[in-house]
Design brief:
mainly beta; seven-stranded parallel sheet; Pectate Lyase C-like; 11 strands
Amino acid sequence: MNQTFTENKTFDRADLSKTSFEKGEYENCKFHNCDFSNGNFSGTTFIDCEFINCNLSLVKLIKTTFRDTKFIDCKMLGLLFDNCNEFGLSFSFDKCIINHSSFYRTKIRKTIFKDSQLHGTDFTECDLTNSVFEHCDLANAKFVNTIIEKTDFRTSYNYSIDLEINRIKKTKFSLSEIAGLLDKYDIEIDRTN
């Protein structure tokens, strides 16, 4: 079965409930205001693509390839990025809602998460070396055996990271959120002084 190759195309307001998504390879394509929720990107390749104001919640990502893909203002609930093709996996997120998604065991060094919400997102055994979490809400995000060396959390908040079970060399944190590194000790920190 031959897959389609689509290049330099803009898709606007596509709705999977009305049309089925054509699997194949997409290069330098833009997806604006598209609803892909509950869709299937399995086996599809996206290179230098942008998803802007799209709903990608619960999209199947089995062997999906993302290379230099940007997600901007997207709703991305319950995505299993750990099912993606790991070769060359690279993307960035800006103003996205990525709640209850999983990056389990993915190697996503130098990834930028900006102004995004990552409630309950799983980063267990993920390699986030040199990544940046800029103004992100990490409430209940899971960091277990995660490599967060040289990762920047300085402007993010609501995280709880156990320093003893994660690799943290040269990781950057802000003093105002230091409590998120001490949660397991069940101590009270007075923020008035």
